[in-house]
Design goal:
Distance between the termini: 46 Å
Structural class: alpha/beta
CATH class: Alpha Beta
Bound molecules: sulfoquinovose-uridine-C1,5'-diphosphate
Strand content: 15-25%
Number of helices: 12
Number of strands: 14
CATH architecture: 3-Layer(aba) Sandwich
Shape: globular
Order of helices and strands: EHEHHEHEHHEEEHEEHEEHEEHEHH
CATH superfamily: NAD(P)-binding Rossmann-like Domain
Length: 382
């Protein structure tokens, strides 16, 4: 397939580009380095330095023989989106091109505005480029489990049948996002659903939980192919942060009570899910939604796992509850359905002690690069 990856430089975008190319697809990866600029401006650079997208594509070709076409373009500008789509004529578009940090979106007016503008404009431009140039193309959009929040009922896969005063209908599952970034993803879903209804687009919206990990089969070929691995409070997701904290000898930063539950998945499983979605497209006029996670943990359970595996490697790991910089429930019901991707063939990599130890060893090999001042939360929700 001709695959266009929007946001091809990101934590997920770059390994996805390598994965599709290695599977024999024709890949174009586009990015405008927004994440790199925010990382530099907020002192949140990844643990392991990552060369530019063009340099990584060049290196990947040299070690694997597979090509990735690179375009540097700002997809929030309609002309740039349309030009990229016209040049690559994709059969599938993987849309990751969003400001992905919840804390960044809560930093202040400028950051919230930038998140709103970028995320909504890219989705809107993508929809219109598909309608005008490649109407049969399948859009695979990265959403987030955070769209649903933490409701006191089971979270269905995107849709819910509601009976009301003796009549029934099917609706998008209720959403209640916990950050402004997550809210932009809710708005994306609504916009996609509108154009699916009106113009018969094919869309898969992947409601993903927090991802962890720094290794994929292709990234193992050369350390410079490693995806951005962040441990700061802006871009670092909780498991990646705990791994680095354990190696740095800093107590694991459990926010508040630590009973917050989320659905987690390994980076390698993100790649599987996205490829399964792309290779099994949504029907014309279908907004297909999958909940993209493989296991549910509370923050306390994650901290205990990292502590146990760290101690197995001789690290002295402590856990410390600190005041929660976010506004979120710290004890709650959480029971999402996530069978759709398993039905398509997903084979999960679980967060076993061996998996944690393997990731810790990779962090230990880069221990001297850890900057402790990036670890404590710098952004408060209110
Ligand atoms: N947390 C801690 N300690 C930390 C960091 C986080 O207790 O040092 C807690 C948070 O308060 C939260 C949970 O861990 O309850 C997850 O936080 P996170 O930073 O790993 O994830 P989040 O900010 O929600 O965002 C991440 C990605 C985002 C994606 C989302 C999926 O950055 O792009 O959409 O995970 S979800 O969380 O399901 O909405």
């Amino acid at each position: 397939m001709r695959v266009l990856i929007l946001g091809g430089d990101g934590y997920l975008g770059w390994p996805t580009a390598m994965d599709f190319a290695a599977a024999g697809h024709e890949v174009t990866a586009v990015d405008n380095y927004l994440r790199r600029r925010i990382a530099e401006a907020t002192d949140s650079e990844p643990l392991i330095a990552t060369p530019s997208l063009s340099e990584r594509a060049h290196l990947f070709k040299a070690v694997s023989g597979h090509s990735i076409e690179v375009r540097i373009a700002d997809l929030s500008v309609p002309e740039e989106m349309f030009e990229v789509v016209r040049e690559s004529m994709p059969e599938v578009i993987i849309h990751y091109a969003e400001q992905p940090s919840a804390p960044y979106s809560m930093r202040g007016f400028k950051e919230a505005r930038e998140t709103l503008r970028n995320n909504l404009d890219v989705t809107f431009n993508c929809i219109w480029a598909v309608m005008e140039i490649v109407p049969d193309a399948h859009i695979v959009k990265l959403g987030t489990m955070g769209e649903y929040g933490t409701p006191n009922i089971d979270i269905e896969e995107g849709w819910i049948d509601i009976e009301h005063k003796g009549r029934t209908d099917r609706f998008l599952f209720p959403r209640a996002a916990g950050s402004f970034y997550h809210t932009t993803k809710v708005l994306d879903t609504d916009m996609l659903w509108f154009y699916v209804r009106l113009h018969g687009l094919r869309v898969t919206d992947l409601m993903q939980g927090p991802v962890y990990g720094l290794s994929t089969p292709q990234a193992e070929m050369d350390p410079k192919l490693c995806p951005h691995f962040n441990y700061d409070d802006i871009f670092g997701t909780v498991v990646n942060r705990f791994l680095v904290q354990a190696v740095a000898g800093m107590p694991l930063t459990v926010y508040g009570e630590g009973g917050q539950k989320r659905g987690y998945l390994n980076l390698q499983d993100t790649l599987q899910c996205v490829r399964l979605a792309a290779e099994n497209p949504a029907r014309e006029g279908e907004l297909r939604i999958f909940n993209q996670l493989t296991e549910v943990f509370s923050v306390n359970e994650l901290a205990e796992r990292v502590k146990r595996a760290g101690e197995g490697l001789g690290l002295d790991v402590k856990i410390k509850s600190i005041p929660n910089p976010r506004k979120e429930l710290e004890e709650h019901y959480y029971n999402p359905v996530f069978s759709g991707l398993t039905d398509l063939g997903l084979e999960p990599h679980y967060l076993t002690d061996d998996m944690v130890a393997d990731m810790l060893e990779k962090v230990i090999a880069n221990k001297e690069r850890i900057r402790p001042e990036r670890i404590m939360p710098r952004v408060k929700w209110s």
